[in-house]
Specification:
83% of the residues lie in helices and 0% in strands. By secondary structure, the protein is mainly alpha-helical. The chain has one domain (6-112). It is found in: Cell membrane.
Length: 113
């Protein structure tokens, strides 16, 4: 895997879009149940987040399998899409770890060459 891998790009995009959708859904629920307004926004944001979250789960699981992550890390990454704003922090950590692994592999290849 390299830094411009389509699977990594899909993961990053879906993480951000899913996170934004969940934040919008959370705010819409607060508006609906706290202030009695925005019922339609809850439906729209709920559908939006639900479909995107399913795509996020598939891509995160695929990424974890490709990188041979332990199941606990895959589950942790997938569940981040269910807690408002958590996915933003998890995405940054995952990308940082992947880039560090890639840099270590490149360094090892240079030493062995």
């Amino acid at each position: 895997m390299n830094k411009s891998n389509p699977l990594l790009t899909a993961y990053r995009v879906l993480a951000y879009v899913t996170g934004v959708g969940l934040v919008v859904l959370t705010l819409a629920c607060i508006a609906k149940y706290g202030f009695g307004t925005g019922a339609q926004l809850v439906v729209i944001a709920g559908i939006f987040h639900g479909w995107l979250y399913m795509a996020y789960v598939v891509v995160a699981f695929s990424l974890g399998n490709k990188l041979n992550w332990p199941i606990s890390k895959i589950v942790w990454t997938v569940l981040a899409g269910t807690v408002p704003t958590a996915v933003f922090f998890v995405e940054r950590r995952v990308v940082r770890e992947i880039h560090a692994e890639l840099a270590a592999k490149e360094q090892a290849e240079l030493v062995n060459a």
